[in-house]
Design brief:
It is a single chain. With about 425 residues, the chain is an alpha/beta fold. The chain folds into two domains: about 325 residues, Aminopeptidase (3-Layer(aba) Sandwich); about 110 residues, Alpha-Beta Plaits, CATH 3.30.70. Helix content is about 35%, strand content about 20%. The protein has an eight-stranded mixed β-sheet. α8 runs antiparallel to α9. The chain is globular, with a radius of gyration of 23 Å. It binds zinc ion (ZN). The site of zinc ion (ZN) has 3 residues, from loops. Zinc ion (ZN) binds next to loops.
């Protein structure tokens, strides 16, 4: 690998670690990344990138699972108190925390895009000495929000790439776009950036994740095992009545939801591949002696392919409608998130594998991941790039984890940040070596 790049990455590594720890401490959940987005915007602006922000890169109507206006306003206030930069905040106000930073060289060449996500999870971090972020003073200070998936690392990787690419700008050709995405958790944000046209001119697209059970030193060059998914909130509305005196006047929303839950869990069957369904939340009713007039379910479906997921999703809609009919109640289904399955393009995966050989810390280069990797909405971006004739892949950088993803003790070995920066920057610097066959 190039010594100058290696030395420069080593020089900025302490700053990237500081970024990661700052973002970890001020964790912000999906669509609420106000502080994070303003700090990223300022850093990339100062480096000389041209920025597209907020509504320029996020289609309002395509946002899924947006928090209420009240929560958005409260959280924006919280972000200001925690140091969000007022000169950038108006762009992101109302849940538009997306950034595309562009570096246009004056040499002809392709458009390359790299996506990182910025959001935390809706959960509280473990505050105990056996958890390094707490012991070293950077555990989340925001109750109910925690970086338990490593997206704080991803944002730091994006910032690191921005520094290195700018430093070695004279070696680049074409255009580089760094995409900072909100609300990946719950697969809610990517679709809105696709709808805003962010991916339409992209020839080469790369998204990446750290961890995911891959050992340190290993790189998955083309993860192809993300499940297509849909996330639904379902509400049933019936009629309340006195459960002892006038039960016949009630319409029982709780029974409709309970019936639907059991029926949904018998669904997943498809000969073409694996599928999943889960009712993760079921709430209903208001009192012991009242026929329940409302119920809420939070449901997700998944499938190994888009077709399988679509099949399970359509079946689920029928079950929900059927259960509502059985009990004479109204029901409403709201789509809260969705992602596709997507296959990486092989020539791009081959190129990534070849280029990654130059990174000494990467001792194992693997094309694809065997077990299902959950879901990821960068698949919307991959599908769009492929649709427009471009190449796309999804990388996983292995690292040691202190606990599984989405666990209150989650933490990762920060060395992976520099490794990822070097690998991704190498892809950009050597693009003239890409071969389509
Ligand atoms: Zn994640």
């Amino acid at each position: 690998m190039d010594h100058a790049v290696d030395d420069f990455v080593r020089e900025i590594t302490p700053r990237l670690q500081a970024w990661r720890r700052d973002l970890h401490k001020f964790a912000e959940s999906g669509w609420l990344e106000f502080r994070t987005a303003t700090l990223v915007a300022e850093e990339l602006h100062c480096l000389g990138y041209s920025l597209q922000l907020g509504k320029e890169v996020i289609d309002a109507e395509s946002r899924m699972g947006l928090p209420s206006a009240e929560v958005l306003a409260q959280q924006e206030q919280r972000a200001i108190e925690q140091g969000a930069l007022p000169q950038w905040l108006p762009h992101f106000s109302g849940g538009f925390c997306g950034i595309v930073a562009t570096l246009k060289t004056d040499r002809p060449g392709p458009v390359m895009a790299f996506r990182v996500d910025m959001d935390a999870l809706d959960m509280s971090e473990r505050l105990a000495q056996d958890h390094r972020p707490f012991a070293e003073g950077f555990a989340s200070c925001n109750v109910g929000m925690m970086h338990a998936c490593g997206h704080d690392g991803h944002t730091s990787i994006g910032i690191g790439m921005a520094h290195v690419l700018k430093q070695f700008e004279s070696r680049l050709c074409g255009t580089i776009k760094l995409i900072f995405q909100p609300a990946e958790e719950g697969t809610r944000g990517a679709k809105s950036m696709v709808a805003a046209g962010v991916l339409d001119d992209v020839d080469f697209f790369t998204a990446s994740h750290l961890g995911l059970g891959i050992p340190a030193g290993e790189l998955i060059c083309g993860c192809d095992s993300f499940l297509a998914t849909t996330k639904l909130d379902v509400t049933f509305r019936g009629v309340a009545s006195h459960a002892g005196a006038r039960p016949e006047e009630g319409k029982n929303a709780l029974l409709a939801a309970a019936q639907a839950t059991l029926a949904l869990h018998t669904l997943p069957q498809h000969s073409a591949g694996s599928s999943r369904i889960n009712v993760g939340v079921l709430q209903g009713g208001s009192g012991r002696n009242v026929v329940a007039d409302h119920a809420l379910m939070k449901v997700e479906t998944r499938g190994a392919t888009n077709e399988i997921n679509d099949f399970i999703y359509q079946q689920a809609l029928q079950v929900l409608a059927g259960a509502a009919t059985m009990y004479g109640v109204q029901h409403e289904v709201r789509l809260m998130g969705a992602a596709r399955s997507s296959q990486p393009t092989q020539p791009w995966v081959n190129y990534i594998r070849q280029q990654a050989r130059q990174i000494p810390e990467l001792t194992s280069l693997v094309d694809s991941k065997e077990q299902a990797a959950g879901s990821e909405d960068a698949t919307y971006m991959m599908e769009r790039v492929k649709e427009m004739g471009g190449q796309a892949s999804y990388l996983i950088f292995g690292t040691e984890l202190s606990a599984g993803h989405h666990n209150e003790k989650f933490d990762f070995n920060e060395e992976v940040i520099a490794i990822a920066v070097k690998t991704l920057v190498t892809l950009a610097c050597n693009i003239q070596h890409f071969r389509k066959e």
